Amino acid sequence: xxxxxxxxxxxxxxxxxxxxxxxxxxxxxxxxxxxxxxxxxxxxxxxxxxxxxxxxxxxxxxxxxxxxxxxxxxxxxxxxxxxxxxxxxxxxxxxxxxxxxxxxxxxxxxxxxxxxxxxxxxxxxxxxxxxxxxxxxxxxx
Length: 141
Description:
141 residues, two-stranded antiparallel sheet, Ribonuclease iii, N-terminal Endonuclease Domain, Chain A, 6 helices, globular, mainly alpha
């Protein structure tokens, strides 16, 4: 049975039939939506401030580090999904990060896309929040 969040059908697409890069495409949007929500909770301020924090956490370099920091927290199934996404052959990578960082970020996005399609929104937010907490601990010492 599909779950609905603001009239968005969740759980109607079998995530196992979606290509890895399509999962990453969706997961990127899911990740950014969670980040934007967290930014609102933290700042609830000017759009420029919200945009700054969103950009800080939504770039491939940061996503790659968050993915790396979460490796021990993933289930065996989640690790398999992450690796499939990471190993997907993309046409290009941004100039702002290395190929390995880009692939880790893609794997993380694919995992989030898969979880989203499975209707596991709670796990998406849990992983993103845990990843941000670990990331902030790392950069703040």
